Amino acid sequence: MIEAVGLDADDTLWENEQFFRLTEAGLAELLADHGDPDQISRCLHEVERRNLSRYGFGIKGFTLSMVQTAIELTGGRVPGQVIGRILELGHEMLAHPVHLIEGVPEALDALAGRRLILITKGDLLDQERKLAASGLAERFDAVEIVADKTPGTYARVLKRHAVDPGRFLMAGNSVKSDILPVLELGGRAALIPHDLTWQVEHDDDPDHPGFRRLDSIRELPGLVERFGTGR
Amino acid sequence: MIEAVGLDADDTLWENEQFFRLTEAGLAELLADHGDPDQISRCLHEVERRNLSRYGFGIKGFTLSMVQTAIELTGGRVPGQVIGRILELGHEMLAHPVHLIEGVPEALDALAGRRLILITKGDLLDQERKLAASGLAERFDAVEIVADKTPGTYARVLKRHAVDPGRFLMAGNSVKSDILPVLELGGRAALIPHDLTWQVEHDDDPDHPGFRRLDSIRELPGLVERFGTGR
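Predict the joint structure of the above. Result:
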């Protein structure tokens, strides 16, 4: 019996990665004299990886990594105006509209009998802004904005809400963040793939009885039912 | 009877503002050709104020505001190397050691019979890092890292932990963030002033029966006792 369902937010409930990709394209345009878009993206991803333990996830850290990329790629010769434009790219991201993914409201309606916990990482203020703009806040019994999604993170969240991992299912688009740590705790997990998923979130599908891969969030309520009856 | 005590972290449990001031002095040195330290600080504070609703609190937003200040003060002529140094100032802040304020461990010992809730704002990852480095994590029954400290924030935190505001006391160094919103909810609040407090956190002491101003966190356990007996 699944008593509580955890839902990831970015690229599970609403579009997120597309705004990062658009901004990356904007950065490549700004730095076009210093490399082709592929080189610039590779440099940016490398800088992001180096900064991950320092900045964590979210737009503010991404903007700082874009600034650092511009400096590294140009050997420090990037004009101040270009840096100013990069800051503006960050401001635009922080104001981007929230686009719900198809089928989300209907799936949440169908799940309304369970305890629903939104579990997302990123910048606190930005995630709160998006949740408010999504119109979905009232659907959730709890909202947990976390620095990272490790087994320890999920254990703390489940303990806080007095949920037994064996009665918990997590759904999201990242094998690394939404699936593996929950399976490790003894919970179940549903991958809802998104066309765009940040490369650091990728991992192979696990071979585990508590794991399912869905085509869409529309299939989630049915999966929760089936797990409930042991089928 | 006070059942639960909320404690602010930055500049209540450990030093924080001093690292911002040191970094500000470092920025003034980097931009010495473009203004005296006072002008540079004024410009930075103005940029920070403009960015507050966008970035929230914390070092990543502060670093982005320093970069923006350098661009605005130089009319975009700031060299890329200087921006690179500003990013490094941010990295140094994110790695700064945690210095406990005098009397904190003893005060927490004396409060150990109550439920202790750490309530702090700032970047998630950075606050978690500092809490882990402080060695104080085990003293708290709960940790709440929040985007802002409004009456609504405290109401949510108290509801989540099933604490009646009338049985709650909050202690911290900011009248604006730690005192006024809690008094508004019907709780009690103790101001523990710190020599360095960010100007946006300042406000007048309230004239309210639930408010006390202390000289040091050493006085907090006694105050909690006295409130408990109605004296």
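Chain A touches chain B through 35 residues (CB under 8 Å).
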